[in-house]
Design a protein that fits this description.
Elements: H1 2-9, H2 14-22, H3 24-27, H4 35-47, E1 69-70, E2 77-78, H5 81-113, E3 119-121, E4 125-127, H6 131-156, H7 161-179, H8 183-186
Helix pairs in contact: 1-2, 5-6, 5-7
Length: 196
């Protein structure tokens, strides 16, 4: 079965072409490589002293500097300096937005715990908020904030130095702009995620 998977995944390899002659009719039964084929491909390529599969692209495992980077999805690739700088600016804004959302979440949590009957929700204006609605809004803010934080973490995992610096500087300046007030010292709240 290993030879059949290798036959389908890599038909241009010399070793695999010999196997594909013997199993030509079985090749049609496997329309797409399965996840086990990808795992087997990795295990075999990692154990051989030469590159049996030259078409396999590996991601960077150390920090590198350069304008060519793939951020989050394959269609978000930067090839020019302009696209690279715009992507860094977008990541900077997203990390500052993360701090803004965290500030709104903390303020909403403090306001919903107050004893007054009318609570000013920071995102909704003045409204009378029932305890269950306040919990739902706080949970929604927490979910959006966590999603933004984890997407920024995945962007940093591209191991591009510029992406790393843009996200860290965005976190720092966002914290300075939105969360470094006097009320931050008076409260101790749970962290939404380990991203900041």
């Amino acid at each position: 079965m290993l030879s059949i998977l290798l036959c389908y995944t890599y038909p241009n390899s010399v070793l695999v072409q010999k196997v594909s002659v013997e199993t030509k009719e079985l090749k049609k039964e496997i329309p797409y490589p399965s996840s086990s084929a990808l795992i087997i491909r990795f295990l075999i390529s990692a154990s051989l002293p030469f590159n049996l599969f030259p078409a396999v692209k590996m991601m960077h495992m150390t920090f590198y500097w350069g304008k060519t980077v793939t951020i989050l999805i394959d269609s978000w690739r930067t090839d020019s300096w302009l696209s690279y700088l715009l992507s860094l600016f977008a990541l900077f804004l997203a990390s500052a937005f993360y701090q803004f959302l965290e500030d709104r979440r903390i303020r909403f949590k403090l306001l919903s715990r107050s004893k007054s009957s009318s609570v000013e929700a920071p995102l909704l204006g003045a409204a009378s908020v029932w305890p269950s609605a306040a919990k739902a809004i706080a949970a929604a803010l927490f979910g959006v904030n966590s999603a933004v934080g984890y997407l920024l973490m995945l962007a940093v995992m591209s191991f591009n130095g510029g992406v790393f610096l843009a996200v860290v500087i965005g976190f720092a300046l966002g914290y300075y702009a939105f969360r470094s007030g006097a009320e931050e010292d008076l409260i101790a709240l749970d962290k939404s995620c380990g991203c900041s």
